[in-house]
Amino acid sequence: MPLPIRDSGDQLLPPGELVDIRRRLRAVADRHDLATVIACAFDHRTRMLPFIFADTRMAPAGPRAIGSALIDSGFAKTRIVLQQWNRNFQPSRMQLDGRMPDIFGVSSMSLHTAPARAMIRDICRIDPARRPLVIAGGSMCVYEPWEAFYTTEGEWGTATRKAAPSSEKGDSPHADVAVTGEEYVLLNLLEVLLAERGSGEPIRQTFLRIRDRGGLDGVPGLVYPRTDAAGRVIELVDTGIQRLVGDLDELPFADAGYAILEAPGKGATLASQPLAANLVRKASPIGSLTITFGCKFSCEYCPIPVYNQRHIRSKSGDRLAEELVRLVKAYKIRYYFGTDDNFLNNQPRALAILEKIAATDQGGIRLRNKVRWGTEATVHDTLAMRDHMDLMVRAGLRALWLGVEDMSGALVRKGQGHDRTVEAFKLMADHGIAPMAMMMHHDAQPLLSTRDDSGLLNQINLLRKAGAVSVQVLMITPSAGSKLFDGMYTSGQVFTEVAGKGVEPRMYDGNHVIASGLSEPWRKQLNIQIAYLFFYNPLRFFAGFFKLGSKLKKKPVGMQALGMVGLVHTIRRTIGWAGRLIFGRIKRAKDVPAGPFPMRSPTGGVAAHARGERADITSGQ
Ligand code: B12
Ligand code: SF4
Question: 444 near 534, Cβ under 8 Å?
């Protein structure tokens, strides 16, 4: 079920409010001297195609954004730890500025629920009187906030939904609060807490005091537990859907987040200093950059448009150019990935951004020579830019990941039919912009078709001829917050167990076939491997050398090399699953999974983030 939409006129924060709250917090920050550590959860078992390089070589934007917001609000003692780089980090042993931090934040995608829960379990080993305030956030909490409150290993999770005996549920170590939104929600929470924090009082105590008298109920975007005297969770209170910042120029600059990254390492604790500026580029050769949020399409399997309350939000060209100049100056990062859902959503805005970047020459930094970037867009919007390809190149844009899905239109129609997709790919390739195909395999799509081009391999062949530099093939998988989610469960497509092995959150990656109505779903698992092998192989790698003179230069060869390495990992990590699908018994879910605890709004009504029980769309607070 998609998230609810807030009432019209109440979906966005008042203009200027995100800037203002940071100013207000700066005025009190020194007095409170808070130390915060934000850890990004990462399950290393998810490392395979198509993200094998980007997943660890690009410091993620979410935790960096939260870190930047804290720094910009005056809380200088903030550190970001990425499990991508620090597998052994143990929050219960961390010290920042010689003490246990006041706040411990966990950022996680649903896919990384297992390590996120492990970190929460670990921090909860600290005596409650000394424990930092534990705040969970990221897309896991946006769509399934209950995951932060039930952390017993193997018992709950996006997929392994084996409910524990109800007498034990509440005893599970848990976060103090889940943030179901963005920077503003956290800052809003801090402002409420700091307004009442007694001198020297542990902030967790302030939190519990205010929480217990309902003082957090006016902060939309939180889910917190109500507990009994022994601290056991009884139910969850959901303060509603967040209000979004409408103008992304109000966000704090991204460079601050890079300055507080923990260096890659093997230790369980934190270093005395963050990663030095001159080493940032080595650890994160690709910089992820927020440019826009939202998408005008509404594909049934995608939660993004509703998450954004159907708004398309953007930074201005001026802001973006300044941000890039700062990043180049401070960290010399050359390659960037825009975290856009569809960068070309709004053509005038995209053109303004491109023109500004192409024209910027500031303090000796000529952006068009200094940065190379890529982002996501749709075939439809790319074709609409056909007269502006040169401008894209002048602005340093060198790759576009296009949601091709299934070009036959059997899955979705968003202007990505065969002819249009091929046209868009050729157009880009002719201009030296690498076309990167994102495909979605599904039950109705054959591996190969003889009569038409509906087969997976037929389509990959077309894309290859049209100049595709990379392909990704993901199996359609229920995505929390999408329209398709409930139906996939109630129609019995989603597996809970295969050959005695429970489906884990990390398998919701599109690489594992964990949902299919077919009696032989292993065919889909093998199709994905065959499709990758068809595209990434030594033959095409060597063929790439003959194309070095094309506008795409070394990109096809480079991507083939990466793709082959990625494919080895993909096969290694999914072949066992294919075996289970062939030989094992498949158990399927019957119902839409809801969380382990009752969840309600502050007034006792239906919770905005609850699943299953929401009869219609309700607004937040
Ligand atoms: C860039 C991106 C990637 C990159 C990430 C690379 C990197 N290292 O950064 C790549 C291409 C590798 C990738 C891969 C995948 N991705 Co991806 N990706 C995105 C995308 C487009 C942008 C993420 C981003 O940086 N956003 C910008 C930042 C600023 O926003 P944010 O991360 O949401 O963080 C904000 C809040 O969540 C919150 N927050 C975050 N952390 C914390 C922590 C605390 C303490 C608090 C208080 C708040 C908080 O505040 C932040 C600031 O506003 C999003 C869609 C989107 N628009 O968000 C999908 C998204 C994150 N991806 C998603 C998925 C499913 C995947 C894949 C599984 C592929 C797939 N099947 O689609 C793989 C997983 C790979 C892996 N092993 O991890 C889903 C996650 C859904 C979920 N329920 O968790 C998303 C949300 C897309 C969607 N379907 O809606 N992805
Ligand atoms: S075009 Fe992409 S971002 Fe937009 S709704 Fe469809 S899948 Fe989601």
Answer: no
